[in-house]
Design brief:
The complex is a heterodimer. Chain A is an alpha+beta fold. Chain A contains 12 helices and 11 strands. Chain B has helices spanning 49-56, 79-89, 105-110, 123-132, 148-160, 178-195, 206-211, 228-236, 239-259, and strands spanning 11-20, 23-33, 38-43, 64-69, 72-73, 90-94, 166-170, 198-202, 214-219, 222-226. In chain B, helix 8 runs antiparallel to helix 9. Classes of the chains: A alpha+beta, B alpha/beta.
């Protein structure tokens, strides 16, 4: 047993010494693995964020209907729909399609609109598009949907990211973060600017209150009850002396009776000059965003990988030549070629695994740092929830780094096993 | 694997030819290494002496011919088996000692026996060799602190730690002073006798050539046996005459081989 232990000691002593010498060559693996750890951790978070914050949520049987001129290729088709509209006749035709169960219209004030709010003594009145939606759309999606009616103060629903911005503002003022419910009833004021027959601006003010925040529809403005907009427009349709409807249809949200018939419905809607977006389309758009993220990450990983492999290859080649005498002597004393190769590759794998583990720790540390600071850097990303890399990623990091390192060292190892022994012995 | 009886040669080389590129280094060389013998191998630089040692140890594969250990051609074995054979049955001694610099004298001696994790425990042999070769005082010293003679004695101990059948020595006294070299030569003969080991020694040292059981000379890729008396005469002859003599002797040997 002592003899075997002594042999193992010789092997470990020999490898340990070589590992210490070769450690510097594989430093690139550290960067590579920490990037992979960051990438894997961020990927899912970004997917969720993109789905909910950029493209909104749809049920499987829900579809969004846009005017045709809105580019459906754009990731922000909904946002660009602000400047396009669906004619009332087309809306009627859509409502008559038998395969559609319910159709909710999204209308938008065709007047200049502003909303004023005040927080911590600082008030501002900003230009913002004002949309109208029926409260029944929010049934099952908003716990306070019943209160979303044309009453005074006027309930206003804001996009979800506004909530993040407000909390960020509070944090900057040294205040604790608030829940969405705490913002309910927060006083707001709606300004709608109409014109008199002389072209003079008339300011119409309505007191309002924050109702809720939503990520169900990703409209780039506040949502108020449709009744208010329709009544307001009816009241002011002749203010300028000529008739002005005062609002326009920008989007319809419909539920399909039978999901399998969705392609037929989409074809019908397209024949009416409309564009359609379903959950599949959102998934597709999300995937396209992810593809961009994946592709760019793969390019970075690829570059890091190439640089790492070249670095390891070169370093090991140098090690082979500086240790040529040692390898030759081992061969002469009875070590087989395969054992030289295996020893070299094993040595590289151990170094790779060490750096893999280190890369995992560095990646997780960077992740921690990012999670605690992302809200300060980019307020809109405050809702981005990133989960730390788990043991699965650790094993992946170890396996990946060990493989990269050993594959990079393989060719130098073959060189090492084929050194001209007598030439080396005579040096 | 090893030869069965004491009369059989330890190793036989049959019609071996070796080339480096288009250059022929060895041409149809045949040789038998008897047991417990010392064979001197002489020749000019680049004549193929080291190549022949490389072939005998299985490190260099000849383009033609075969090398028999017992009845088996060592080049028909896989590299793994040939390496094991080299470790167990062949010892090496070099002109420049080739000890591992970061191992002590004792660790260097023991090193060949640790190549396989489950190899035999040779620590007793190592202790015996340390005593026998007078290495007690330097056993824990590193090669950088040792003299040439001490280094070569450590290298000899390392070569025979696994009790090989053949030791291949490449100019073992070439880097030593007269007195030390004489001691090392004595040691070879003593070890050969005591451990039943055959030595094939590439050398220019007349002490080895004169005392060797057989003497071979390589010239023009051919291996020529030099008779003892003639060899002694050749050693005494001035350089020019000696070359002419060896050349003539080589021609005679070739003719006699053809007749056979």
């Amino acid at each position: 047993m002592i003899h075997i232990a002594q042999n193992i000691y010789f092997i470990i002593k020999n490898s340990g010494r070589n590992i210490a010498k070769a450690l510097i060559s594989s430093f690139g693996i550290l960067f590579l693995i920490s990037f992979v750890v960051l990438y894997l951790s961020f990927r899912d978070s970004i997917k969720n964020y993109v789905e909910t914050n950029l493209f909104g949520k749809l049920a499987i049987n829900e579809i969004k209907i846009f005017p045709q001129k809105t580019s459906t290729d754009s990731f922000f088709a909904t946002a660009s729909s602000v400047n396009a509209s669906i004619s009332p006749e087309t809306v009627k035709k859509v409502r008559k399609i038998p395969q559609l169960d319910k159709t909710y219209s999204v209308i938008r004030f065709d007047y200049d609109t502003r909303v004023r709010g005040e927080l911590m003594g600082q008030g501002s009145r900003i230009h913002v598009p004002v949309f109208g939606m029926d409260r029944s759309f929010f049934k099952g999606k908003d716990p306070y949907w019943k209160n979303f009616t044309n009453t005074e103060p006027l309930p206003m629903i804001a996009p979800r990211f506004v909530f993040e911005l407000l909390n960020n503002f509070l944090a900057a003022m040294g205040m604790p973060a608030m829940t969405p419910d705490k913002f309910r009833g927060f006083p707001l004021r709606l300004y709608v600017f109409t014109e008199d027959p002389d072209g003079k601006e008339i300011r119409n003010v309505t007191e309002g209150a924050a109702h809720s925040f939503t990520d169900v529809v990703n409209l780039p403005g506040v949502i108020i009850p449709t009744d208010y907009i329709v009544r307001f427009c009816k009241k002011h349709e002749k203010d300028s002396g000529t008739y002005k409807k005062g609002y326009k249809y920008v989007m319809l949200i419909s539920t399909v009776k039978d999901v399998k018939r969705l392609p037929d419905v989409a074809a019908k809607l397209k024949s009416l000059g409309l564009a359609v977006e379903s959950r599949d389309d959102i998934a597709e758009k999300t995937n396209r965003v992810l593809e961009i993220i994946d592709d760019s990450s793969l390019v970075i990983i690829g570059i890091l990988l190439i640089l790492t492999v070249i670095s390891i290859f070169n370093s090991y080649l140098t090690i082979v030549y500086t240790r040529a005498h040692q390898f030759s002597l081992k061969r002469v004393l009875g070590v087989s070629k395969i054992r030289i190769i295996m020893g070299f590759v094993f040595e590289a794998a151990v170094i790779g695994a060490i750096y893999g583990g280190a890369g995992y720790l560095v990646g997780n540390w960077l992740l921690d740092y990012f999670i605690s600071n992302v809200g300060k850097w980019v307020p809109a990303l405050q809702s981005l929830t990133v989960e730390k890399a788990g043991t699965g990623v650790l094993f992946l990091a170890l396996a990946l780094s060990a493989s990269i390192s050993s594959v990079s060292a393989l060719i130098p190892a073959i060189f090492a096993s084929n050194i001209n022994l007598f030439k080396a012995m005579k040096k | 694997m090893a030869p069965q009886d004491n009369t059989q040669p330890v190793m036989k080389i049959e019609n071996v030819s070796a080339f480096f590129g288009k250059r022929r280094i060895l041409s149809d060389v045949s040789l038998s290494v008897p047991q417990k013998s010392i064979m001197a191998l002489t020749g000019k630089s680049g004549s193929g002496k080291s190549t022949l040692l490389g072939i005998m140890s299985g490190l260099l594969k000849p383009q033609q011919g075969r090398v028999l250990y017992g009845d088996e051609d060592i080049f028909k074995w896989l590299d793994f088996k040939r390496s094991r054979f080299r470790n167990s049955h062949i010892g090496f001694i070099f002109q420049f000692f080739n000890l591992l610099p970061d191992m002590t004298a004792y660790q260097n001696i023991l090193y060949p026996s640790t190549m396989k994790i489950f190899s035999k425990d040779r620590r007793d042999e190592a202790e015996y060799l340390i005593q026998h070769l007078g290495l007690q005082t330097i056993r824990n010293q590193y090669p950088s602190t040792l003299s040439g003679g001490e280094l070569q004695r450590v290298a000899i101990a390392r070569a025979i730690i696994n009790k090989p059948r053949i030791v291949l020595a490449d100019e073992p006294t070439g880097n030593l002073d007269e007195t030390t070299a004489a001691g090392i030569v004595d040691l070879f003969f003593e070890i050969s006798e005591q451990y039943n080991i055959s030595f094939v020694i590439v050398t220019h040292d007349s002490r080895i050539v004169n005392r060797a059981d057989s003497h071979y000379h390589i010239e023009g890729g051919s291996l020529i046996r030099v008779e003892k008396a003639k060899a002694a005469q050749a050693q005494k002859t001035p350089e020019k005459k000696r070359k002419a003599y060896v050349k003539k002797n080589a021609a005679t040997a070739k003719k006699s081989t053809k007749k056979k």
